[in-house]
Amino acid sequence: MALRGDDAAVLSARWTEGVLLKRDVFSTVERGRFREDAGEVDAVLRRLDQVPLWSYPLARHLFARERRALALARELNVGPKLLWAGRQALVRGFIDGVALHLAKPHGDLGYFRSAKLALRKLHRAGICHNDLAKEQNWLRGSDGQAYLTDFQLAACFKTRGRLFRIMAYEDLRHLLKHKRSYAAQALTPMERKILARKSVVASVWLMTGKKVYQAITRGLFNFTDREGGGRRLVNDAPVLIELIRKNPDVRDTAIVAFADRRVGVGLYAFVEAENVALDETVALEKQLRSELASAKGVKPPEHIQVVHALPRDSSGKPRTEILQLVAMNQVDLIEPMMTSDADRAFLKDILEQRKNLRDRFNFENSELNSQ
User: Helices then strands (H, E): number in the chain?
Assistant: First the structure.
């Protein structure tokens, strides 16, 4: 199946392909540039022409829900702006920011105030997002504000009936769960009361529908983690990490997932090496690839990069949120996560030697790369 008619004509004339963000049985999502009357803008394209025939009816349903919700929310400035929509594709504006699980806004009360305001605006417009339990559907913009994305499950209402009120309540409760994770001390007594009280619909869903949903998504659709790595990240990565660490020259390693046009989901291993000079890294990478290729039952990572050191947080754990952005070529989104020139200098070698160059676009922040 391929885009036809007006969809193909519009995208051929106005869309510049960029970085693949996600591909599953419901759509292909990529970042690129879209030509408007005033000029090109950064944008995100969702297209249905590459989904399997068996999932196409549900994909069309989800696509229609997102298109309607984005059209209604166009001027609210709480999510991506709908730039164009056709029968099998739509283009929405790109939000300069990262997902909540990457931003990790610990103690950022301003962020959660803006998130509550964004949700209030959405509900006043008669829109319930209906998928806000996922941290990746909350973005922290480079301006520090909260934005919502991925409206495929959104519901639009003309009146504020009982179903609307239940869905709006659940939207708020899921936001407060994230606030509890990152700024628990700022929860008000009323917010704690909301957290402690699920709606009847949510309680029934947890006891019945969610189990069926997980059986389908994890079994049939192969969705097993929020980063989109599926079974390879959940099942294969731990095995690969153990194998890589057996090499005497390896100090530590971290594996992240990235969308890949050829295989759907790829794995990228960043390997911290012990006393390995820069000119020896290529040899170590080849050695590791050979060792992993000879191992049975697990596919080697698509990319292996030996680094002088892994970026780490204050507790010493590898900052996989940064490494994932490197693997995905979302380099410009790393800059807001840097706290000092030392951080930028530390990351420079990793960026310069990165391996995933097949699916890349000139989104790199010139200031970050010039350090």
Answer: 14, 13
SS3 content of the chain, % helix, strand, coil (to 5): 45, 20, 35
The pairing of beta strand 264-273 with beta strand 303-307? parallel
pLDDT of residue 270: 96
Render 84-137 in DSSP notation, one character per residue: EE-SSEEEEEPPSEEEHHHH--TT-HHHHHHHHHHHHHHHHTTEE---TTSGGG
Q: Helices 320-327 and 341-352: crossing angle, nearest 10°?
A: 40
DSSP letter (8 states) at residue 198:
-
Q: What mean pLDDT is predicted for residues 5-26? A: 90
The encoded tokens of residue 14 equal 């106005």
Question: Can you name the CATH fold of 97-220?
Answer: Transferase(Phosphotransferase); domain 1 (1.10.510)
The CA-atom distances, in angstroms, between 177 and each of 107, 123, 134, 173, 186 are 14, 18, 10, 6, 12
Q: Does domain 230-369 have CATH number 3.30.300.30?
A: yes
State the pLDDT at residue 201.
62
CA 185 – CA 204 distance, rounded (Å): 30
The answer to which of 89-103, 179-193, 233-247, 354-368 has the lowest mean pLDDT is 354-368
> What tokens appear for 25 in the block?
């049985």
**What is the topology classification, in CATH, of domain 5-93?**
Phosphorylase Kinase; domain 1 (3.30.200)
What are the structural domain ranges in the chain?
Answer: 5-93, 97-220, 230-369
